[in-house]
């Protein structure tokens, strides 16, 4: 499939679920604090006339939080999303979406009744055509304006409490870059003051469920804008890698011949511009990233601080991490010892599970190793390697879930850092998802990993598996 033929599909395809729905990015919705757009299928809010959902008050968890964030009422992300909306669509059955116009991740069909299981594959096991298709889809996302979603370019206070909306259109790839920035940005306290010890998607229990939703949504959007419902995100198995073997022009971009910090001119991604990479500038101006282009992708793999990250993760590191029986422990932040989450995230030693903030291992090691756009948390999703990396991290999470088979109650219900309790709604997603809802095996969410499929232990109807192919 060519880029041109992919693009032709866009005229008739809806776009799915993520940040601020365009239909609610107006003063009327903000002042009413209601985001219940009509479903086009019957014109009623949330498709209520067709039984798809209804507009309801948001019920927040009142479980106590950890001590890491000593403020209240200073950040729009607190008690997400009620600063903006306290009524949203709550969908019935297998329906999902900001207007209940879509299906849950593991269902398809006009009435969301057909269950599906898709398989994410190793990027090095894709055929040449499948690999080209993946790169073309990334490029398409970078050059396709999100039809249904916009980003906030100001805080709710800067929007004059809703009477002066500050939203902007953005391409689909950068929409997700912005969401990753927004969830991890510092709290603006006024003047030049900020609070840095806050992150609604990292350094705490929600790290793995949040990124699981992030990848599912990204995968879902690609399926919609391309019309290829069989597309799945590939993963990069970096265990025991000696260098960045996907950093070639054939895959994610080689090194520029004259500037080692840039991508090769022959790369798919050499012309891409990054956004949301200048956190200190936003802080000093007390502003949000507004999606303005800020320069090319930076990457210089291997020329990083070897004292902090001596090597890429090994199979032994992963296996030790998987042996840990506690999902979360202690302070439930980056100081946690014997925590599977903290060890996989990379704040704890991968051979002792003791927190060591002077080192970056496992997940964090890959970000530091890339020595560029990937190495700064808020802007790390600018580099498309982010997707391949986090898909493999998610597969390790999946291995742990299968090995230890925890009840959902294992995920902390209270006293985690703000944003991370089990019933907290994930920032900044609309429709709403709770952290605990994604502390479940991936097959319950409609996907699996090629290297984890074991017919001896798990029964699959292979006639229903969808593999990413190339549409003719």
TrEMBL record:
Key words of the record: Copper, Glycoprotein, Melanin biosynthesis, Membrane, Metal-binding, Monooxygenase, Oxidoreductase, Signal, Transmembrane, Transmembrane helix
EC number: 1.14.18.1
Keyword hit for Magnesium: no
GO cellular component labels: melanosome membrane
Residue ranges of the region described as Disordered: 292-312
Annotated signal sequence range: 1-18
Single annotated GO MF: metal ion binding
Predominant location: membrane
Matches recorded under InterPro entries: Di-copper_centre_dom_sf, Tyrosinase/Hemocyanin, Tyrosinase_Cu-bd
Subcellular location(s) of the protein: Melanosome membrane
One of the Pfam families matching this protein, by short name: Tyrosinase
Domain of life, source organism: Eukaryota
Keyword Signal attributed: yes
Membrane topology: Single-pass type I membrane protein
Domain Tyrosinase copper-binding per the UniProt entry, residue ranges: 202-219, 383-394
GO biological process: melanin biosynthetic process; pigmentation
Required cofactor names: Cu(2+)
Family affiliation: Belongs to the tyrosinase family.
Full protein name: Tyrosinase
Organism of origin: Varanus komodoensis
């Amino acid at each position: 499939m060519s880029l041109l033929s992919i693009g032709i599909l866009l005229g008739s395809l809806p776009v799915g679920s993520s940040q601020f729905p365009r239909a609610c990015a107006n003063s009327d919705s903000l002042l009413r604090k209601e985001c219940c757009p009509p479903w086009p299928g019957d014109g009623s809010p949330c498709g209520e006339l067709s039984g798809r959902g209804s507009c309801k008050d948001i019920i927040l968890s009142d479980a106590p939080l950890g001590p890491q964030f000593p403020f209240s009422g200073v950040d729009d992300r607190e008690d997400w999303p009620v600063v903006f909306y306290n009524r949203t669509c709550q969908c019935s059955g297998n329906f999902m979406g900001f207007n209940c116009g879509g299906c849950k991740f593991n269902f398809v069909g006009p009435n969301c009744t057909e269950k599906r299981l898709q398989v994410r594959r190793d990027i090095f096991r894709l055929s040449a055509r499948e690999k080209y298709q993946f790169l073309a889809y990334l490029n398409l996302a970078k050059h396709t304006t999100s039809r249904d979603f916009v980003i906030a370019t100001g805080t709710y206070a800067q929007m004059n409490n809703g009477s002066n909306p500050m939203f902007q259109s953005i391409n689909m790839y950068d929409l997700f870059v912005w969401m990753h920035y927004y969830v991890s940005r510092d709290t603006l306290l006024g003047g030049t003051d900020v609070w840095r010890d806050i992150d609604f998607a990292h350094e705490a229990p929600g790290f793995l469920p949040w990124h699981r939703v992030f990848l599912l949504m990204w995968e879902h959007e690609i399926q919609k804008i391309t019309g290829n419902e069989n597309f799945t995100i590939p993963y990069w198995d970096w265990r025991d890698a000696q260098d960045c073997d996907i950093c070639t022009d054939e895959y994610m971009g080689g090194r520029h011949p004259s500037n080692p910090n840039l991508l090769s001119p022959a790369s798919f991604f050499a012309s891409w511009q990054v956004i949301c990479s200048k956190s200190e500038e936003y802080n000093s101006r007390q502003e949000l990233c507004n999606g303005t282009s800020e320069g090319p992708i930076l990457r210089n793999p291997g020329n990083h601080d070897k004292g902090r990250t001596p090597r890429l993760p090994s199979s032994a590191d992963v296996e030790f991490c998987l042996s840990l029986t506690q999902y979360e422990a202690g302070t439930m932040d980056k100081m946690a010892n014997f925590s599977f989450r903290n060890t996989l995230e990379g704040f704890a030693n991968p051979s002792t599970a003791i927190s060591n903030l002077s080192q970056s291992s496992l997940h964090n090691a890959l970000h530091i190793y890339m020595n560029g756009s990937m190495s700064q948390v808020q802007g790390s999703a600018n580099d498309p390697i982010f997707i391949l990396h986090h898909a493999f991290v998610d597969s390790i999470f999946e291995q742990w879930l299968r090995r230890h088979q925890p009840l959902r109650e294992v995920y902390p219900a209270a006293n985690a850092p703000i944003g991370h309790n089990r019933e907290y709604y994930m920032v900044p997603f609309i429709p709403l998802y709770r952290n605990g809802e994604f502390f479940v095996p991936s097959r319950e969410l409609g996907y699996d990993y090629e290297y984890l499929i074991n017919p001896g232990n798990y029964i699959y109807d292979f006639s229903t598996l969808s593999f990413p192919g190339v549409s003719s």
